[in-house]
Amino acid sequence: MAQPRILSGIQTTGNMHLGNYLGAIRNWVELQESHDCFLFMADLHAITVPHDPKLLAENTLKIAATYIACGIDPDNSTIFVQSQLPEHSELAWIFNCITPLGWLERMIQFKEKAVKQGENVSMGLMDYPVLQAADILLYEPDLVPVGEDQKQHLELTRDIAARLNFQFGSEENPVLKIPEALIREAGARVMSLTDGTKKMSKSDPSDQSRIDLIDPPEVITKKIKRAKTDPERGLEFDNPQRPECNNLLGLYQLLSNQSKTAVAAECQDMGWGQFKPLLAETTVAALAPIQAKYNELMSDRTYLQQVLANGKEKAQAVATPTLQKVKAAMGFVQ
Ligand code: TYM
């Protein structure tokens, strides 16, 4: 029997951080044992804000290398580049024509990012979630594993699919399969190191706010040493007055592969002076094998290009028939 399918992706802007790893990639690695995985680099999404053409291709390869370094097996999972499949843009255009503008005006990420762009906010930034819906629905996945911040985009994706099915399909014969979001509680919201109420983000101007997966050990240690804390003694989860404490304990829990109860017991009497070196050491040790593999992969571009060429072919074999099905349902000439 065919395995259930998952699809997910990461935007190719900047380095990947602990939020991307713990909120997304780590779950994909676990799911790949029992699922057919389609994982891609969202480079068309990366150009919705001003970008540097000299870095775009390099960033795409870096993300591919990170997927593999974190444990995605390119022989089993399909790893591909969004812009290499024109199906994504074509389906996005079709979705544009059935998506009410009001649905996009409500998107939280658009509002947050648009403020930063001022007068220069592009049409593409507003359209970002529609392209994301196309990315997903082309592959008819069962599940889309993402962090908490993508929840609204996933709901929009489901609404677009339902609308297209309602307008151009029938209840017995839906055109598109409607996927479920998979948001794991642990790691779904990794917060900034400088403010425990804000999510860790690639676009935060402060480098100190995040730990990149390729940060060298001394940088990781320094960032953790400087991370915002509070004056309390004794560490605890889930105290709304102590968001930084909850976040740093959560990182320790995930990176040391322990249960929440075990970490709560271990750290309840600790002060920051004892906990921070422990967290730094744990983070460095968890990232060391990923960094070693990443460096190895980045020095073998031929291999990476081969993985992406294979991925493109496997992705296209699924995406093209879905696009054709939508076009047929909408009445395009066949
Ligand atoms: P992006 O590149 O912002 O993030 C990639 C993945 O990492 C998760 N994530 C986090 N999880 C926990 N804590 C954080 N601080 C944190 N920051 C990021 C995100 O939830 C995401 O799962 N729009 C998407 C890329 C995309 C996509 C798709 C994803 C394009 N098309 C189709 C899934 C399916 C994005 O920008 O993710």
Core attributes:
334 residues; mainly alpha; Rossmann fold; Tyrosyl-Transfer RNA Synthetase; two-stranded parallel ribbon; 13 helices; 5 strands; 55% helix; binds tryptophanyl-5'AMP; ATP-binding; nucleotide-binding; Trp-tRNA_synthetase; cytoplasm
CATH architecture classification name of the largest domain: 3-Layer(aba) Sandwich
As residue ranges, the low-confidence spans are none
What is the succession of H and E elements? EHEHHEHHHHEHEHHHHH
Report the count of strand segments: 5
Q: Indicate the structural class.
A: mainly alpha
Count of separate structural domains: 2
Percent of sequence in beta strands: 5-15%
Distance between the termini: 32 Å
Question: Which geometry do the CA atoms define?
Answer: globular
**Residue share in helix:** 40-55%
| The top level CATH class name of the largest domain | Alpha Beta
